[in-house]
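Cross-check.
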Amino acid sequence: MRLTILLVVGVSLLFGCATTEPLPTYFVLTGTGGTAKPARPATAVRVYVRRVEVPAFLNRTSLASMNGDQIRYSPTGLWALSLDQTTSLGIAANLNRLGISAAGFQPAFSVPSHVYDVAVHITHFEGHESGDVVLSGNWQILGAGGGVVAGKSVTIRRAGWTFGNDSQLVALLSSEISELSDQIARALR
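Predicted model, tokenized:
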């Protein structure tokens, strides 16, 4: 009898101490079927998307959102790659989807031979408690001599985000990256 009671108490303690915290989810911006381990870039492409510049408050592994004037970092929604890298690869993947041969920044590989550089500077890339998701910044296309071929300041806003829904936030951010990529593609044609 005493052994049974000790066994029941022991099992209860074991299950009572088990964590119920959700596991992290890792996200990339390379569209459906994207992978956290990007493929080796081609040896020659038309466009090379440089490492994307992001502000310090976004240069983290956690997804960021604004709750009033405070930044909230998701405890479980994480970028699978650094944001500067996943954004570069996402833009390059979208350009490839649009028929423009492109490669994005990857620290493990050398820069492939290319005709144009795309430089992107992001100032905002987060959700807001209001339900808006915002991408703002600017992009430039640079020619072989380093001169600016085209460029634009952008603010892209999507509505309908449920505060705290990481998957929905990444889907809206991905949509914004697609729109940004479309703008770049139009300038390259």
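The mean pLDDT is 88. The two ends are 82 Å apart (CA to CA). Passed to J.P. for a second look.
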